[in-house]
Every structure is written in C-alpha cells, then in structure tokens.
Amino acid sequence: MLENARFQSFPQPVVMQITADVAGLPVVKPGTEQTSGLGAAILAATGLGWYADLPSAVKGMTRSGESFAPQTDTGRLYDEIYRRVYLHMYSRLHPLYQAVQQITGYPAFRKG
C-alpha cells in the first residue's frame, strides 16, 4: 500500500495540495529540482561501487523537501464533485466532441 506520493518536478504548492487531497496521501517534494541529474548520479555511484545497491544509494543521496498532508474534508469534496459531475460529463459532451472533430478534423481518430 502506498504511504505517500513523490513528485519528480516542482509544481506549484496548490497543485501539490490538491494532489494530496485527491489521493488521500501525503505528497512530498524532492529535496532538489535536479532530479534527473540526481538519478544519473545515483546510478553512477552504484555502478562505481560507492554504494552496495540502488536502495542504499537512494537512501544516502536523496532528501525530501516540503510535504503536503491531505485535508480530509477537501478530499471528500473533490470526491463528491468527481462522482456527481465528472463521471457524467464525458457522455454528455461526447456528441459535442464529435461535432468539433467533424468541423476541424482534430483530433484525427485512427482505426485499429
């Protein structure tokens, strides 16, 4: 079972909080914005034998940044909006999506 969610990039704090509320999990920012470079360094350090394995390298070379705890009441609100509104939205908008596609040719649907 998931204990938290971690982002590779740095979205705005409001996006982090909404994600925590919707998922019902703490969301944690990484301690660096350079996550791709850090991942490469972790692989290199492991390959060079500086760490016994990847989990050890990750533990030794990473740190967590700001954490966003889920707000239960807000999460329930998002869930209700999803169930009562968004689940029904696509079927009602589908004919309009088809009209836009017929007028513009976009998106071009592929068969098979």
Can you describe what's shown?
The chain is mostly helical. It has a single domain, classed as ATPase, nucleotide binding domain (Nucleotidyltransferase, domain 5), CATH 3.30.420.40. The chain has four helices and three strands. The chain has a three-stranded mixed β-sheet. Helix 1 crosses helix 4 and helix 2 packs across helix 3. The longest helix has 33 residues. Its EC number is 2.7.1.-. Keywords: Kinase, Transferase. GO terms for molecular function: kinase activity. This is Carbohydrate kinase, FGGY, C-terminal.
Distinctive features:
single chain; 112 residues; mainly alpha; Nucleotidyltransferase, domain 5; 3-stranded mixed sheet; 4 helices
- CATH fold-level assignment: Nucleotidyltransferase, domain 5
Tally of individual domains: 1
Instruction: Estimate the helix proportion, in percent.
Output: 55-70%
What structural category do the secondary elements indicate? mainly alpha
- H/E order of the elements? EHEHHEH
CATH architecture: 2-Layer Sandwich
Q: What is the terminal separation in angstroms?
A: 36 Å
The biggest sheet amounts to:
3 strands, mixed
Radius of gyration, in Å, reads 21 Å
Beta-strand percentage range: 5-15%
Unreliably modeled segments = none
Give the tally of β-strands: 3
**Relevant CATH superfamily:** ATPase, nucleotide binding domain
Strands of the widest sheet, in order across it, are 1-2-3
Question: How would you describe the shape?
Answer: flat
The residue-averaged pLDDT reads 90
Q: What's the tally of helices?
A: 4
Level-1 CATH class name: Alpha Beta
EC number: 2.7.1.-
Enzyme class: transferase
Keywords: Kinase, Transferase
Protein name: Carbohydrate kinase, FGGY, C-terminal
